[in-house]
Structures are given as structure tokens and as C-alpha cells.
Amino acid sequence: MSDDVDDTSDWAEHAKQVVEQLDQIDYFELLGVENDATLDEVRAGYRNLQQIYHPDRVFRGADAALVSAVERISKRLTEAYVVLRDPKRRDQYAKDISGPDREKKLRFGADSEQQAAADRKLQVMPSTPKARTLFLNAKKAIERGDLASAARDLRMADMFEPNNPAVLELIERTGKGD
Amino acid sequence: MTEIAMGIDLGTSNTCVAIVRGDHAEVVPNEFGEPTHASVVSFLGDGRVVVGNEAKRNIVVRPESTVFSAKRLMGRLSFSEEVRKARERMPYAIVDGPENSIRIKIGSEEYSPPEIGALILREMRRIVEKTVGQPVNKAVITVPAYFNDNQRNATKDAGIIAGLDVLRIINEPTAAALAYGLGNHKKERVALYDLGGGTFDISILDIEDDLFEVLSTAGDTYLGGDDFDDRIVDNLLERFKAGGGGDVRGQVHAMQKLREAAEKAKIALSEHESVQVHVPLLATDESGYALDLSTEFSRQDLNKMTIDLVQRTFKVCDEVLHGAGIGASDVDQVVLVGGSTRIPLVRKSVQHYFGKAPLTNVNPDEVVALGAAIQAHLLLDDAKSSVLLDVTPLSLRIGTVGGYTESIIERNTPVPIERTRVFTTATDNQAVVRIKVYQGESNRAEEDTLLGEFEFSGFPPRLRGETEVEVTFDINTDGILEVMAKETQSGVRTGTRINLSAGLSEQEVHEAALRNEGLSLVSGGGA
Question: How is chain B split into domains, by residue range?
Fold first, then answer.
């Protein structure tokens, strides 16, 4: 899908073909990336294709069918990007489309969304030893009611393992003082 | 004749209009050479209306028929905090309209906030048409990135009432990014810090050549330069009282004089370390003697009384960086937008927070309008390939049982996007489903903003749980939401896409447009 398209009528034809395939391809195929693509590759695929199929490109278009085709493609590109840029959703999606229900799971639905959300909650402990020790210390400190030490330990844990959701969640809670 | 489209920054305090001529964007000043115009509308009582800086002077002499800061009321419901505050401090009358909306009462007429906005937009159009000598009716209008769906719809309604063809509603920080022409031949990650008269926005964008991708956005629609003015006014009130002048709080005329003096002092303090504030005839004593306020006001005084406001913006900055999954040091460029970023304390604090000097080479009062003009120009020509990928600033949710809500599209999701969720009926033979749509970050309905609700029916009755209703949320490139419902087995669907605009109906917009045409704009300006 990442062919260069410069001629306008070719481009219009191309858009109409793409829209017909939309429901038969998975998000990786749609963005033109491999299943093990990096986040940067996913993002580049999304950006390149949005530059080709963004609704602004047909803003003055008289052809209603083309406008609606381009809108559908643009929205589906966003949908694919939102799933593939998020590690939990992407894991779930990769499972979905390699399973027996692939045909039904080409679009990320509510069930998959809930599964990904549950996985996100499961992923609590920091994975580096230093951060994990600090994280556990902080939890104990919170139980003792010693929020100041908890906050200190959590800040350090965040330095050893930045952006761990569990650490961030605790930082937020201790910050609010509850 | 080359087609011209306007870019309009419809601000809380000031409005600015720009167009692209040749190959560059330029602000169009009015016949008095003024590049920006106070967002003030003064009704003269004979069908004539003055808009802009001339109207601003009428705030003191015609307080009941001069409307300012109407943007704060756009898309707000009558029971909201913002409307409660406005009723307290605005000299003009705010009355209840149909369906929890509000109206501004001028004499015997009642105007909706979009109608006031429309008069300002018409003035912008008049200025442009006078300058270019040809009719112009296409426009891109900007809104704060953190505006909710009702506020965006109200802004679009203002455009329609003014008789404009609104090409697009775009976010102010995103527009500013366009005007800066960043990311030429290299990838840049840019923070746009936008502190205007009434609102604060911060957006993080990745810019690469013609592509502008917003990674995250956050804001506070209750924080702006007006709040700085309020602090100064409070302080001046205290000083006047301490000096034996008495308490003039609640006196419309005196308060307006103080507000003017406060704004002037604030602006002067961006240049000078200290200013003399002098307000003549602020009150009279028991024996009828006129009392003036005269006092020295330093930048340090201002800093002390507003530091908490500035700190509030950095809480929002923390949030936006977290949303983008980056730290302050990952930002390559910081751009200042909005007149309030001229305040030295704001500048210094931004530099400290991001660890680099912010860009200020485009006038912060004009940069948004310039960007909007560029976007308008691009939209006139399909061959142009610049693409703006913006996000939705607040999560969109659906009401569920027990006063809870479930997020359908979370905040910072790129648009355009469409998402469908399936719900089932809760009781046997249920024939009607009530769908309530909310915007906000809480799973408790009472803490979110209700955007609208509608009833869906016409499908055959079945046992509990057997009727499946597909609800689709569709956000277009204006960032405006449409909701559709469909019953899966029978295929019954809502006739048309439902626009949730809690504000004006199509009929009301039409009537407002007719009434608006009946009002004639008198040329203002000449400050």
C-alpha cells in the first residue's frame, strides 16, 4: 500500500481499490509493516499513508464516493495505529490475528480491548532488581503511613526504571496523599 | 480572481484575522491599522453594533449592552461553574435559554453566545473584504485544543450564523505550529505553550516537513490572562480600602475602571520593573469628594500574586508530557503562543521547565490567525500535501447503569477515528434505548460533561440481553463527534447521524442568522 502515487486519477482509483480491501487485511498489512516492526516503523507507515489518504487531500473533491473512501481509509489507519503503538493492545492483536478466528478479529474489538486492559493491570512489578526493591520498600512505607519515604523510594524507582506503570500509579496516589 | 480564505483566531479577549496572499500569510489590520481586535460587541440600541477596540471602550459607558469574554460562555450549560462565575462578574445580563442553555439579554432581545461570536466574525470578514476588494466567505476558525465537543459546535454555529463557509475548526496550538514553519528537512518535537486571555493549552507535536502529528494535548479552559488581571484588581481593591477609599467591590463602573487599569499595568510590567497605577474618580467620600487611586505597582508584586497561576500551567505540562510518553528534555523546541506569554514570569518559568529558551519570533498575538490562514489556503488546493493529524483532548464516554460511564474513545486518540461498541438491553421487551454521551476522564457520570442524549427505538421487542445495539462514535477532522446507533438483527438504525450539539438546533441557527443579518456593523477602531 505504500506505492508512490502522483497522478490524481490514478490516486483516486487506488483509493477506491484500497477501500475494498480494508476488511480483508490486518493492521500490519494496512500500515505496510512487518509483524515485528518497531514503533518507529509503525509510526512511519501511519504517517506516510495519512499523507496520501488524509481527508484534506479530497477536501474540494466533487466525487462523493472518493471522499467517503478516503475518509474510511484515514479512519482505519488511525485505528490500526492506535492499536499497534500500544504494547498491550498490540500483543493482544497479534494473538487475535494468528488464532483460528483471524477473519473475525482483523479489527480490534471490545473483547480484545478488555483483555488488553486486564493485561495492563497485571503488569505491576518493575522488572529491574533495584527498582523492584525500591518499589516494595515504598509499598511497605505506605502501609506504615510513612508517605515521605514512600515518595522518595518511588522517585528513585522511577529513575532506575522510568515510566513503569505500577510505579507511576503509586507516585500519583502518594502525591495525592491517599 | 484568486479565491481567498480567512484564518480567524476568535479569542476570549482579542480576535485576529489573516489571509495568504502570494506565498505568505499576513494579518489583515482594520482601516485604523489595528492588527488585533477586542472580542467585544457593543449594541447601540438602534440595530447598530460596534465590534472591536471601539466597543471595548463602551464596557465602561454602556456596561449593560456591551458584551465581552463571550467565548467563556460558548457551549456552556446554565448550571455550569463557568456560567455561575460569569453571572457574578459580567455587567451584562445572562438569562436561561431553552434546554439548559443561556442567553445574553440586551434590552428586550436575547442572544445566544454563538450569535455574539458571529458578530465578531462578521467584523473580521468586513475588514478582509474591505482590504482585498472582493467577497470572502470561507474561513478556518480556531478553538482552544482543550475545548469540548459542545464548545467546538458552538464555535462552528457562530461561523454559520455569520454566513461563513467554515472550512475547518482547528486547534490553536496546532495552528501556531503551522505558522512557525518548523520541521523543514528535519524531524522536530515541539511543545506549544499557549496562554491566552481566558484559556491555557499545551500540545506536543512531531513535525517533519509537511506532516504535523499531535502526540498529546492538555489544557485548562479556566486559566488565562484574565486571571492575572483579577489578581491585580483584588490587590488594588485592598490598597484602595487600606488607603481609606472604601470598598468599591460590586460597583460595576468602578470595577470596570479597575479592570482596565489592571490590564494596562500588567502589560506595562512586561517592559518595566515598576509602574504607577492611577485611577481617577474611583469613588466619592461622604461629603461628595472624588477619590482617586494612585499607587506604585512592581513586577515583583505581580510575580508574587500570580506565581500559583503560572505553576498551574506546569501541572498541565506534566500531564501532556506523560500523555506523550516523553520527558521535558525530549522536546526540541518550545513555542510561546498567546498574549499572556509576554509576561516575564511566564517566559522565565517556561525556559526553566523545558531547559531551553522558547521561540518567540512570531508575534504571539498573531501566530494562531496566521496558522489558520495557512490551513485555509491549503484546504483550497487539494494538491497541497501538508497534513495535520490532531487528537481528541478529552475521552468520549457512554453512560452505563448506576451513574457510571465507559470510555469509548480515550483522550489523545488521533482523529479522524470511528469506534463501535455493542450494548445489550437490560430488561425484557425493551423497546427504547436511551443513549447518553459524556466527555471527561472520570468513570462517574456526575464528574463528566454531558454532551447530549438521545432515544433509540423502532426495533422489535425481545428478551433481556437479546437486543444488541451497536453504538458508533465518529470524530471527524474538525474534532467534532457524531454518534450513530444500529440494532444488529433488524438493521434498524438512527435515521441520520446524530449531532449532539446541546446548544442550538438547526432551526435556531437559521433564525439567528436572519436576525444577525438585520444588525448592521458600524466601523469601529481608532484607539
Answer: 5-186+363-390+509-522, 225-303, 391-476+480-500
Instruction: Note the pTM of the prediction, 2 decimals.
Output: 0.88
Which residues on A lie below 8 Å from B378 (Cβ)? Answer: 56
- Phi, psi for residue B88 in degrees, rounded to 5: -70, -45
User: Going by CATH, does the domain composed of B391-476+480-500 fall within 2.60.34.10?
Assistant: yes
CATH number of B5-186+363-390+509-522: 3.30.420.40
Of B325, B422, B476, the CB nearest to A110: B422
* Over residues B299-325, mean pLDDT: 96
Closest CA to B146 of B112, B194, B191: B194
Question: Rounded CA gap, B168 and B170, in Å?
Answer: 6
Residue B226 among the catalytic residues: no
State whether B416 and A163 contact (CB < 8 Å).
Answer: no
Selecting from A8, A47, A74 the residue whose C-beta is nearest the C-beta of B416 gives: A74
Q: Average of pLDDT values for B347-360?
A: 96
> Does residue B345 sit in helix, strand or coil?
helix
- Whether B292 is a known active-site residue: answer no
- Which residues of chain A approach chain B closer than 8 Å at the C-beta? 8, 47, 50-51, 54-61, 71, 74-75, 78-79, 81-82, 110, 163, 168
What is the CATH T-level fold of the domain B225-303, as seen in this structure?
Actin; Chain A, domain 4 (3.90.640)
Closest CA to B194 of B353, B342, B16: B342
ipTM, 2 dp: 0.88
Structure confidence by residue, pLDDT tens digits, A92-133: 999 999 999 999 999 998 888 888 877 766 556 777 888 888
Judge whether residue B89 has pLDDT over 90. Answer: no
